[in-house]
What we know:
The structure holds two protein chains of two kinds.
Chain A: H1 3-13, H2 17-29, H3 34-54, H4 60-83, E1 91-96, H5 104-115, E2 119-122, H6 129-138, E3 143-147, H7 155-166, E4 174-178, H8 184-190, E5 194-195, H9 199-210
Parallel strand pairs in A: 1-2, 1-3, 3-4, 4-5
Helix pairs in contact in A: 1-2, 1-3, 2-4, 3-4, 3-5, 4-5, 5-9, 6-7
Chain B: H1 5-14, H2 28-32, H3 36-40, H4 43-56, E1 62-63, H5 70-74, E2 78-80, E3 88-90, H6 97-102, H7 113-126, E4 132-137, H8 139-147, H9 149-158, H10 160-183, E5 188-192, H11 201-219, E6 225-230, H12 235-242, E7 249-252, H13 258-264, E8 270-275, H14 277-282, H15 286-300, E9 306-310, H16 320-338
Parallel strand pairs in B: 1-4, 4-5, 5-6, 6-7, 7-8, 8-9
Antiparallel strand pairs in B: 2-3
Helix pairs in contact in B: 4-7, 7-10, 8-9, 8-10, 9-10, 10-11, 11-12, 15-16
Amino acid sequence: MTEIVHEISELLQQGKVPKVKELVQKALDEGVAPQDILNNGLLGGLDIIGGKFKRNEVFVPQVLIAARAMNAGVEILKPYMMAEGFEEKGTVILGTVKGDLHDIGKNIVKTMFEGKGLKVIDLGVDVSADRFFEAAEENQAKIVACSALLTTTMAELKTVVETFAGKGARDKYKIMIGGAPVNQDFCDLIGADCYTPDATTAAEAAVKFCL
Amino acid sequence: MEKNMKKWVEEQIACKTKKAVPVLSFPAITLMGITVKELITDSGKQAEAMRLVAQKVDTGAAVSLMDLSVEAEAFGSKIRVSDDEVPTVIGSVISTLEEAEALPIPKVGAGRTGLYIDAIKKATQSITDRPVFAGCIGPFSLSGRLMDVSEIMVNCYMEPEMVRVTLEKATRFIIDYIKGYKEAGANGIIMAEPLAGLLSPDLIEEFSSNYVRKISDAVKDDNFLFVYHNCGNNVIALLDSIKEIGADIYHFGNAVDMEKALKELPNEVLVMGNVDPAGCLKNGTVESIKQTTLALMDQCCRYDNFIISSGCDIPPMTSWENIEAFFEAVETYYLNTDS
């Protein structure tokens, strides 16, 4: 890894948005391959943050500012990546289910997914089962990841699974679920493909689904 | 009813058999045949809900609704109310430092805050056999609702002055609000600061504990307890800061290792927790609830300052069969340890 790419990774981990933007542009100007900047600088930095988060060495605010730094860097890289025909590992449709407005857990999951090189279509909060399905079809996604924080809205996770089954598309996508009241028993009960207790484990599971 | 609450804490610590103090109020809606919406908009119904719960189960204290939308609504936030779930704040009311500086501090009584104080006044008249605790939100959690919970996390680094301005306003309002509860006759306040449980040790000290300490210092006395509730994930890592806020009682969520917390906190403060209110009490079975409750008590009741509780507020639609299973387990534990 070149020195500048290493520096991008370090600055991203500290959430230094302007510095990351500046160095990404500088690296491009110096002829560093966009793929190298993305994989080793931006995604690499975010992946390190993900590992630290799992080990309780960093906390939610650090993860969120690192994610912002990554997004800022990616915006500069995008035109170069498109020119090179870059392909993500897979696309994930992400959202909090209908009736539920909580999003901080979902936002952390998004960051961890992106850190693993997955493309995330974030539908936000209060997302209907039909909307999850439409977005999965439109974006040729591999994974649909749904979150629920309330005991009343976790039933919507079952609706998502049933909606995909009802449209004959249950085997086409992996459905991942998460959120405070959700557990493996509930995952088994509703027939979802994967439950993970935290964001970093979710990202690791998602990558395996995309292999 | 005025009561020496410092003495009450000492009595609890000295007492071998301690009554459970779960955060139990919303499930009264199924006893009353009403919706959450009806409960949160009527002080008489809230007081009646607390009285019915006190009549039905043998708790160590009566607790009011843990409705963390009340204060944000008083500041102008929009909320979503449903028939069977605790209200949620929608969107944000501030997104810049200028907006934070311009944000007016509401008078106590704004929105539903007057109604909640009135409910406590009525509850203290009908519940006289145990302390009555009112409830409010903590300063960082309120500020997070005013500027969006994800945004405040980022702003601790990117816009710290905006966070500080908001926290100062939240703190001033919360102090006045708790004083309103105190005048209404509450024996203490349960202040919920869950969002701070996601911060780092440095950030919680700067953006939560400093302000919580101000609130605690301003409201607590011999007749009025300050109960700190945090059901965030990182509480153990944050205990050095949390234990310095000067609470009389610490109440923790189910993500917290209670025994570790008990080892860290002083012996003269009560520590309450932490049966999972959703996964266990709402969605569990009678058997699983009894097992979980007994296991926690086996682990923690050797600490004299531990009182069994739920980890957070018990969801509105939790069945009374499940709630009674929790109380049966508490009774069984003490029967077995007495014999």
